[in-house]
Amino acid sequence: MIRRLEGETPAFALHTAGSSYLFRVLPSGHLEQLYYGRRIDPEGAEELASLTEKRSFEPGGVIRYDDADPPLVLEDTCLEMSSGGRGDIREPFLELVHPDGSRSSDFLFETAEITAEKPPFRTLPGAYAEEGRAEHLCVTLRDRACGLRLELHYYVWPDCDCISRSARLLNDSAGTVEVERLLSLQLDLPDSGYGVTCFHGAWVREMDRDTLTLPAGKFVMESRTGSSSSRMNPFFLLHDPLATEERGDAWGFNLIYSGNHYEAVEVNAFGKTRVVTGINPQGFRWLLEPGESLEAPEAVMAFSPEGFGGVSRSMHRFVREHIVRGEWKHRPRPVLLNSWEASFFDFNEESLLALAGEGKRLGIELFVMDDGWFGERRDDSRSLGDWDVNLQKLPGGLKGLSDRLRALGLDFGLWVEPEMVNVRSRLYEAHPDWAMAIPGKPHSEGRKQRLLDLANPAVQEYLIEKMTEVFSSADIRYVKWDFNRIFSDVFSPSLPPERQGETAHRYVLGFYRVMEAITARFPHILFEGCASGGNRFDLGGLCYFPQIWASDNTDAVSRVRIQEGYSFGYPLSVLGAHVSAVPNHQTLRQTPEDTRFHVAAFGLLGYELDLRRLGEEEKAAMAREIALYKAWREVFQFGEFYRGRSGNLHEWTCVSPDRSRAAGLLFQELMRPNTQSERYFAGGLEPESRYRFRSGDPCGLHEREDTLASGASLMSAGVKLAPGFSGTGRDETVRLFLDFSSRLYLMEKI
Ligand code: GLA
After folding, report:
1. What does the pLDDT look like over 288-347, one tens digit per residue?
2. 17 and 39 in contact (C-beta within 8 Å)?
3. C-beta of 531 in contact with ligand 1 (< 6 A)
4. Is 552 assigned a catalytic role?
5. Are 492 and 455 in contact (CB under 8 A)?
6. Which of 365, 397, 551, 717 has the most CB atoms at less than 10 Å from its CB?
7. ∠ CA 486-491-495 to the nearest 5 degrees?
8. 206 alpha carbon – ligand 1 mean position (Å)
């Protein structure tokens, strides 16, 4: 609900079920942020007095904005948007260079409008509401000296306790303005001492979680890779430093954008905290001509007094309901078998069919042919860009393969990496100027390949048409869309010198335009995003890809941490997770087969190994696991996710929306000898309902621990587990539960 409160100046109250966000217009025309936290319901503007900044004098060394009494000191006022230059020396929301070279701006309130719709953005993807209905507040500000207009957009998502924001700058003046920064969200809070939790990493080590308490100064989280990156995910949390999974005030933030992003948390000299998120200003410079406008991506925030878990579940609902769209939004995802770790580049139609046939016998539903099917691709040094099937490997073409898979009863999926080109390719020979490179200067290669210049509309057109040709050449039900290098030597041969600062953002806009066209043409295809694993895992991508390959690391021990990291901001319904061979391809670690399955089951289960090398017993176990996953798929994929302990033990529960079924995981990194008894604590059950609790071990490896208990008991007292999880080698059962062991539990309401 959005309310306008009339007083001397207007104020605005945005309410979700559990939170309120309030701001007002100051007599100067600036917007003062008043509150964002647990729901409060002021009836009228007079009740806001307790929330406004009170000042009787201006302290030495600060700038007084005007002659008003009491003085307005922008540096120490909680603002909705700071343009910098008039005394606020904190992180600005916006930085402009005017035609006269000056850099000060001052945007003041003009109008506000509340509507019940969520119109799509002009250039960017955004959250959407079914039937287009959402509550929307548009506040228009103007810089009276230069005539520029700034729209601040607020959207309320009551069903998931989220509020999102975006901005649009319109050049109503007669001169060209250089935009050096236009962020998406600014949140000023009146206190300091908050904890900040961020998710950073690298290839095969995505989403490592770190928490720090920010006493003073500034903490920056950002990506400069050109994509949202595995280096630092745009999702982060601000929280009470003592917040836990269940308790404590916490705010989560994310950005609907797939390029260079920037998040900063800054404590000012007077103990107030500013949070900003948006496109990374580093390297960004956009020329805004008279009559033009520039959109900032939408940013989303959620507040919960119920700690990290509360924020996560709000974000999960937001992603499931308002980001992921199309035919696959609520559709159960198939169990797939991917050819990559089974055969890499070395395959032909017969070997693929042999692999697929094994998969079919185990219950696989979709077979995905990964890299290596086109041009002269024998390794990663050539042929990216030449999207014509290699007839030596696949004599019947894509159609021949898909027909034979169909005859086996399998759907067919395909790997592509359309945004890239190898210099050793026919595409590069024909269009060297389509690759991103600085003419006359050496270019740094990444995975022996270059980025195509997606800032160039001709390249966008080509990709749309070429991919349309590929995707309509056979019965393709799934596409893995890869992106395997980061930006360097950023330069668009299609843009003039003065516009090169627009290249990285124009690339992202080009990527969105291509995805918009292709997903509209192929609404039935399930797209899975990938960028060497999670190097472009963000809400912008999820507007087109209902799921993303979380990491090239399929080692169960690493995966527990990686998937748990993602789970803070993203639901399991978007996380690709595969069972692979041991020793693991990336870590060389040996983990038990059931652990690999348990971890991958908390996500979108797939298999990525050479099934032909497995023994009959192992295959039989896999078949039972796949059957179990299918029977519980709706819970794993679309359930509500609860994290319990996280350390040497990881404890997860996934609960169906009606709370009638739940699946639990207890994973142990290293066995602690002679600790004897361990417990599993469930999360998210109905306390007063009774549940049948049983082991989800389809192979009968573990002693049965079946029991009957109330939800309250399962959550608060836990279940004392049979020995074996810990213990010593004197106990026979323990031999099954060495390091990296795990157990899966199933709970059903009676
Ligand atoms: C990337 C992906 C892998 C695989 C290879 C193929 O590394 O993340 O899953 O598709 O490319 O080259």
Report:
1. 999 999 999 999 999 999 999 999 999 999 999 999 999 999 999 999 999 999 999 999
2. yes
3. no
4. yes
5. yes
6. 551
7. 135
8. 15
